[in-house]
Write a structure and sequence with these properties.
It is built from ten helices and two strands. The protein is mainly α and about 300 residues long. Strands 1-2 form a two-stranded antiparallel ribbon.
Length: about 300
């Protein structure tokens, strides 16, 4: 297999050789996937149907849930199907589509988390200007910019990745088509192009990270000056879930994509992929709803209304 033009398919990672363990993997991923569908679906429904949640914070949360649903639906169902049918192949075009869509949604989510940090910064540090700076038109533009940034990032990475000659076979040591694993199949003399991809990734992740950190430094400084304990508690309850999501998402994702190849081995790569590709979409709804009474009350009203209609 001399180059990528001769490839018709890739072979994904097999979790287990025995049928019992394959079915266990299928059941485990199915549980996570259903939890992500339920949690994100409830948030989307609550924000869309409850006019009390038609605010910038919940608008961005709705977009985050859409991105989470998309990203986990791109990777997990294919892995589940492979375990269920005792297969491991994915077509060349299917792999390219998976890389493009997943990278697009991951890049958009990174940008959206940055926008959400800006929203919290304006709400806490510039409350008198909040309605002016975060009007509906500005929110739509910022959300559209986040989605567009993810699309352009994916276009660049996918085009560069699949234009590389692949000289090291077609076995991808991951449960989905992940760019670092595909780059391992390429020829070793394409250092500059690989370096260029790394620079773009660093700029996106580092730019988002720096902006979020600077925003939260000012946010926490403002929160600590609030005289009311109730006010400080309310501000922290809004900010801490977002900060937890950012810490998990950016730390694991950046380490997976930027770590040196010398410290790359299958078990570590698999754990990292799960932490940034599978865990956040399933955990984000729980993280955001645990300390958010408005969202909890909205979900209760929706459930009560549905029960009343059924009766």
């Amino acid at each position: 297999m001399s180059n990528s033009s001769s490839l018709n398919e890739f072979l994904l990672l097999v979790f287990a050789d025995t049928r019992e363990l394959q079915l266990l993997h299928f059941s485990f991923f199915l549980g996570i996937y259903l939890a992500a569908l339920l949690g994100n679906g409830l948030i989307i429904t609550a924000v869309a149907c409850d006019h009390h949640l038609h605010t910038p914070m919940y608008f961005f949360l709705l977009n985050l849930s859409l991105l989470d649903l998309g990203s986990i639906s791109i990777t997990v169902p294919k892995s589940m199907a492979n375990s269920l049918w005792n297969a491991r192949s994915i077509s060349y075009l299917g792999c390219a589509a998976q890389v493009f869509l997943f990278t697009s949604l991951v890049g958009a989510e990174c940008s959206l988390l940055t926008v959400m940090a800006y929203d919290r910064f304006v709400a806490i540090c510039k409350p008198l200007h909040y309605r002016t700076l975060m009007d509906s038109r500005s929110c739509v533009k910022m959300a559209a910019a986040a989605w567009a940034a993810g699309f352009l990032n994916a276009l660049l990475h996918t085009g560069n990745t699949f234009s590389l000659p692949l000289c090291q076979g077609n076995t991808v040591d991951q449960f989905f088509c992940e760019i670092p694993q595909i780059l391992k199949l390429s020829c070793s003399d394409l250092y500059l192009r690989k370096f260029g991809l790394t620079v773009v990734t660093v700029c996106l992740i580092f730019g988002c990270f720096v902006f979020i950190v600077l925003s939260y430094v000012q946010i926490f400084s403002a929160v600590l000056r609030i005289p009311s304990e109730h006010g400080r508690h309310k501000a922290f309850s809004v900010c801490l879930p977002h900060l937890a999501v950012v810490a998990l998402y950016i730390s694991t994702g950046s380490f997976a994509y930027l770590k040196a190849s010398s410290i790359s081995f299958p078990a570590l790569d698999l754990v990292l992929a799960g932490l940034y590709a599978v865990v956040p979409p399933a955990m984000n709804p729980l993280i955001y709803s645990m300390r958010n009474k408005e969202l909890q009350e909205s979900l209760k009203r929706l459930i009560q209304l549905e029960l009343a209609q059924q009766q």
